[in-house]
Amino acid sequence: MKKSLFLLLILLTTGLNAQEKPFTIPYELDSNKTMTYEEIVTMCHTVDSLFMEVRLKSFGTTSRGYDLPYLIVEDPMKRDKKLTLWIQAGIHPGESEGADAGFLFLRDVLTKPEFRVMLQKVRIIFIPVFNADGWNRMSPYNRINQNGPEEMGWRCTAQNLNLNRDFMKADAPAMQNWLKLFNEINPDFVVDCHTTDGADYQYALTYGLDTHEALNQDVAKWLNEKYVPLVEANMSQAGYPIYPYVAFREWHNPKSGLRTYASRPMLSHGYTILSDRPCLLIETHMLKPYNIRVESTRQMLLNTLIVLNTYNTEYHDVLQKADADRKSKEFAKSKFPIHFKTSMQDSSLTNFLGFDYDTLTSEITGGKYFVYHNDQPETFNLWIFNKIVIDREVDLPIAYVIPPEWSEVIYRLKLHGISIITVQEDTEVEATQTKFSNIEFPNRPYEGRFSPSFDAEEYETTIIVHKGSALVRVNQDKIKVIAWLLEPYSEDSFLKWGFFNTIFEQKEYGELYVMEPIAVEMFEKDPALEAEFEELKASNPQFAASQWAQMNWVYNHSLWADPQKDVYPVIKITKESEFQKLNPSR
Questions:
Q1: Which of 105, 187, 199, 215 fits a disulfide with 84 by CB distance 3.0 to 4.6 angstroms?
Q2: CA distances from 249 to 165, 206, 342, 356, 390 (A)
Q3: Which pTM was predicted?
Q4: What are the tens digits of pLDDT across the range 374-407?
């Protein structure tokens, strides 16, 4: 009632009709400026106060304590069978046009009858600033490659974490809060607003939309046959031709050809497809004037709303079938893809709207660089490599078990909406375990973590599962997320993100004088072991030069070696009878 009275008062005192502007954002007063964090929060309250269709909420705080507001926009009289369109901006605050375009988009939706009626079929979630830490670090010097706005935020959080690398490991408080909201709302279509770097070309906006086998192929078919053609046609008609988000085969060299990549789940548009929900990655071009980037983003949001409204029932049915397929017993028993790559043996020709350019030699480095002429448009006929193929797949177990001491891993599994059964008593089971070899670590961290590389070998064993362990049945809604988080070879597994790095550390050692007689006895009893030792000395000069390394090798082949070193604590249950031992109340 307060909102309707307040809106009526505004209309009476200003003479506005429903199609005129009920609010103005700072960008409209200066098209080379974006909002401050405080202005964004104020605008959220303003929009909430003006419209009955809007509710302002918060999904938590950042590492520095900034509030994370979001808006729910829907027709309050229509509550059944709505699709939920989730729009987020400011994950990289230097790429700010998503926030400005988002508010302009909401104003269109809330004041123009042709869009307002769409709220009967589509609910909108709008997060104007995901990374509030970075947004509050505004400066004119935060994006050297970018043509405006006058000032912008910083790419990372106050902990120097890139949120768009954090969707799986969930280190940032903002990401942990985001995951809770995402799983509570379970949106049907996600849009993540960005600005690209890279070469210059005619497109104001390119887009990422992964449709390879990580996504349900019925959903992928709907995107390729319904969403993409309609949006591409509408954007072109509006004066904003768009193209898929690509890279050049040779850095910055358009004539070298184009290629696409399968997005890892650490990224927004790689993460949501693990729940069979598409994520549209909007990448406006950095060198275009800010107003063009804002307007093209706004148009992309409006056209996405139009498609979801047009195909509401059809898309709803496609998603329901995808959910049923993902939770089926047949899906859990099928081969599961855990890694993808771009096929470099499969390509086609495409027209790409670029600019003429010169290849120059740097006076500083002596290397080559490119200078683009954005007043000389040119259409390139290029080879594009955009066939994504499965590079590795695995057989999934019935369940995974995580011992209780790995409580942080268990907690983060729950953040992802994964259902967990707590084992009630120590239980002996037959299981599959994994042993690692040839382990190496990088010299410097990535996103604050050291990712191991290794070879892995599975073996069958009998093991005690301790009380308090987490039993994770695979056949559930988040089956794809479970596999990507717990399969060792997944690039975004907890193992690869360094959550289990202590298992690779040796904690006990043998003194040389103690090991000498033991080594002699071991080699006398096992000539094959001695032969392996001598071959290693002959082939590895560094090993041959180190007496300690040689005796430590012997130690690690003795009965005194730690049997748990280099062994993955997460085990696999592959027999239903063993699962029932761990969950007898079922």
A1: 187
A2: 23, 17, 11, 18, 20
A3: 0.94
A4: 999 999 999 999 999 999 999 999 999 999 999 9
- What are the distances in angstroms from CA 280 to CA 16, 56, 277, 368? 35, 24, 10, 34
- For 51, the token pair is 């419209």
**In a 3-state reduction of DSSP, which class is residue 249?**
strand
Phi and psi dihedrals of 364, rounded to 5? -90, -50
Which regions of 189-244 does DSSP assign to beta strands (E)? 189-196, 205-208, 242-244
Report residue 254's pLDDT band, with 50, 70 and 90 as the boundaries: confident
Mean residue pLDDT across the chain: 94
> Could you give the 3-state DSSP secondary structure of residue 86?
strand
| Torsion from C-alpha of 76, 82, 83, 86, nearest 10 degrees | 20
As a CATH number, domain 2-326 is: 3.40.630.10
Handedness of CA 257, 298, 292, 32 (dihedral sign): negative
| Residue 442: CB atoms within 10 Å | 11
Quickly tell me which residue has 């904690």 as its tokens.
Answer: 507
74, 106, 265, 286 from 22: Cα distances, Å: 18, 11, 39, 30
CA-to-CA separations, 437 to 15, 61, 504, 513, in angstroms, rounded: 75, 41, 10, 27
Helix axes 2-14, 37-50, angle to 10 degrees: 100
Q: Which of 474, 359, 490, 362 is nearest to 420 (CA)?
A: 474
**Alpha carbon distance 546, 539 (integer Å):** 13
pLDDT of residue 21: 79
**Considering only CA atoms, which of 98, 117, 416, 114 is closest in space to residue 280?**
98
Sign of CA dihedral 410, 411, 412, 414: positive
CB 486 within 8 A of CB 496: no
Buried b / exposed e over 510-542, threshold 16 CB at 10 Å, is beeeebeebbeebbeeeeeebeebeeeeeeeee
What confidence tier does 14 reach under pLDDT thresholds 50, 70, 90? very low
Reply yes or no: is the peptide bond before residue 149 cis, omega within 30 of 0: yes
Q: Which helix (H) or strand (E) holds 547?
A: helix 547-555
Q: What one-character DSSP code corresponds to residue 226?
A: I
Query: Domain residues of the chain, as ranges?
Result: 2-326, 391-506+564-582, 512-555
